[in-house]
Amino acid sequence: MIYLKTLLNVIDNSGAQVAECIRVIRHGRKNCAQIGDQISVVIKQARPVTSDITGNAASRVKRRDICRAVVVRTKAPFRRPDGSVVRFDDNACVLINKNGEPLGTRISLVVAKELRQLEYNKIVALAPKTI
Hints:
single chain; mainly beta; CATH 2.40.150.20; five-stranded mixed barrel; two-stranded antiparallel ribbon; 2 helices; 8% helix; 30% strand; large ribosomal subunit rRNA binding; Ribosomal_uL14_bac-type; ribonucleoprotein
C-alpha cells in the first residue's frame, strides 16, 4: 500500500530513479494506493542529463519535478480473485502523462498482470515480463 511520503523506485527510462508519493489521485475506499492506481509524485533522485542519453529530451524528468505515476508493484501482499497472494520485493511505479501513456520508452523489470485489466496496455506491452 502506498501512502503519503512513500518512496518508490521508478522503473522506466524517463530519467527518474526515486519518487515520493505526494497524493493518491485514483483510489478505492481507502486513501492509499494499490497496484494500478494513479498517484502524484515528486522526483527525489534522477539520472544526470548527458548528451549520450537517447530518447526524447522533452520527456526527461529532473529532480524536484512533479509528475503522475502508476503503481506497478507493491511490497504489501494483495489477494487476487483466484485466491493467490502476491507480494513483490519493492514499491515501484511508471511515470505517465495526463492521458495515461508512459513517459519512458522502456520498462526495466516485471509488472503486475492487473495492469492489463485496468487498461494500461502500453505499460504491459513495454514490460519484459508480467507476473
